[in-house]
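Sat 14:20. Reprocessing the chain from the morning session after the first attempt stalled halfway. Input below, unchanged.
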Amino acid sequence: MRNKENIIELMNHLRTVSNKEIHFDEEAIMADYQEKDTNHQSLSIKILSIFGGIMACLAFLGFVFMMQIFDSQIGAGILGVICIAGSSLISRISGKTIIDTLSVSFFITGFSLLGLALSTEGDTIYPVFIALALCTLFLVQSYILSFISILIINGSIFALAQVNHIYHLTSAIIILQTIFTTYLFLQESKIITKSKVLSKLYDPIRTGMIFSFILTLAFLGFGSFFRVTEYYYDWIPSVMIVITILYVISLLFKTLQVTNTLYKIAIYALTVLVLSPTLLTPTIAGAILIMLLSFYTHYKTGFVLSIIALICFIGRFYYDLQFTLLTKSILLFGSGIFFLAMYFFAHKKLTAHEKI
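Finished this time. Tokens:
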């Protein structure tokens, strides 16, 4: 809802179209709207808060190492837990931007110190990070800390797979991220109406999963820059992403009212043809999936992120020496036709609605 008038108009519309008498607690609805409007922060402010917290964390850790304050890993671990608990408490008490930046600084610093303390404990660090992130996610319910917690959870699982060379787990991570992210997009109404907690956590979880999915694909796609072995490649995640893309396209057909069977078959075949050269690298297909999901649900942030990711992944794919020039040319040519076809159908349907 953009304003109170929209909310009132919607309630009146529901009363009109319903066969039964509907009663709304208008005072509670308006109070909740006013609270969200007062505490609302734009995405740019949230991003600046996170980057501000990261810079403050780096400055503090630099000071700690320069002064050699923590020669003891136990001391670093204790301070890390205190910082995490303190940031969670601060964020839960106050929702102001300045306080959020402070809590983010303590939160990131806490995990950094805890990671330093557990660096010699092998794989213990990963379940500890995941457990603390889950506790923060459900107990604090702050947008920024919840977003960072999602990144920590996904990052910890991915790091566990990479450090221990469990490449099948890496494939499983991509598949699970694909399924869960798609579920979040397509089941938004059911999730946010199930409980107040889920309604509050939905936005940061969805945004966090988009970032996690894209970052996972980017890390693997640009593996040579990170000195990551490329034996992780498996065609199963790519096939799963392509199947999901075809499913989302079927939903778009219903939304755009495309009923011509020949058009549908042509789009399906073209999609498979365009994405088939990328079966050994799920990066491009993953970016296209996020783009289609964001377009279907009108999520601008995800749409912009997916476009940026797609441009980067196509550039990386084009300069990848593992693929022949013919394969790259087919991909670029086919992707151009695919997007032109999608634009044609969308423009055609939107123009038809405007005439009506």
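The mean pLDDT is 79.
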